[in-house]
Design goal:
19% strand, alpha/beta, four-stranded mixed beta sheet, 273 residues
């Protein structure tokens, strides 16, 4: 689709929506088309945006586009205009008057054109069967796209892997937490299966109980059956669990075995929040 008209910003908005739907699109200024870019209309679906449909450039462009064999779509406020009478398809965008005090500046007319462009893009989504996976493919850098393709395995490997055995002393667990700087350590068995987690909160609660540190082991301090997420899961799933459980880190597993830690800060850095 090629959009052209004097309101370049409206044409660009329509263009962006079409590109988001994976439809090849471009926008052109009428004067440039008249000068040197006419060939780009061959076998395309041009949409001409105009309020009056009577400008001199429109009256030159419309016959030219028709001569090149392209079916012309006119988006115009005046149904009796030159553009409306000569377009193959008319998208009527009527307004009573512009919003500015002098009824001169393109305000209401451009707003209606933007709304019509959004409606076209939405209809195109349905016709093409555009799925969330398609959206992620064409929007890989945005937050919405990342929600659909970014996985835990793309994020967690940059973090340390704090590990503690259930028979380790509390002092050893604290040293492991301090050195790995993630606010937790994961208690595992000899096969690397997750048994529990020790967090800063567990340490504070232990101190409040005035427990004898010399007699406690990691297994006495840990929270058993902690929340986990498989490394193949979408990162947004990890974020959802963190929000539901009011936690800031999540244990990552690989086929049921301890793989690492994903932290809330990782997801913030990736733009998921």
């Amino acid at each position: 689709t090629i959009s052209f008209g004097f309101c370049l910003e409206v044409s660009l908005m329509s263009l962006n929506n079409d590109v988001g739907c994976s439809s090849p699109s471009m926008t052109k200024v009428p004067l440039k088309i008249l000068c040197r870019q006419c060939s780009e209309f061959t076998c395309e679906k041009p949409i001409c945006l105009s309020k009056s449909g009577e400008s001199p450039e429109i009256k030159v462009l419309v016959p030219l586009v028709k001569h090149l064999g392209s079916a012309l779509i006119g988006m115009v406020a005046n149904p009796s205009s030159f553009l409306a009478q000569h377009a193959d398809y008319v998208l009527h965008t009527p307004i009573e008057k512009e919003a500015d005090p002098n009824n001169l500046a393109p305000t209401a007319s451009t707003t209606v054109q933007v709304a019509m462009g959004d409606a076209l893009a939405t209809a195109l989504l349905r016709v093409k069967g555009f799925s969330p996976a398609d959206f992620a493919q064409y929007h890989p850098g945005g937050a919405l796209g990342k929600q659909l393709y970014l996985r835990v395995l793309n994020v967690y490997p940059q973090n340390e892997r704090p590990t503690t055995q259930q028979t380790d002393s509390v002092e050893a667990a604290i040293l492991e937490m301090t050195s790995k700087r993630l606010g937790c350590t994961v208690v595992v068995d000899e096969l690397d299966r997750v048994l529990g987690i020790i967090t800063d909160g567990d340490l504070r609660r232990m101190l409040e109980r005035k427990a004898d540190l010399n007699r406690l082991k990691a297994a006495d301090l840990m929270t058993p059956k902690p929340q986990t997420v498989e490394k193949e899961a979408l990162a947004v799933k990890a974020l959802e669990v963190m929000r539901q459980k009011s936690i800031t880190q999540l244990i990552v597993t690989d086929a049921g075995k301890y793989a690492g830690i994903i932290h809330l800060h990782d997801l913030i850095r990736e733009g998921l929040i």
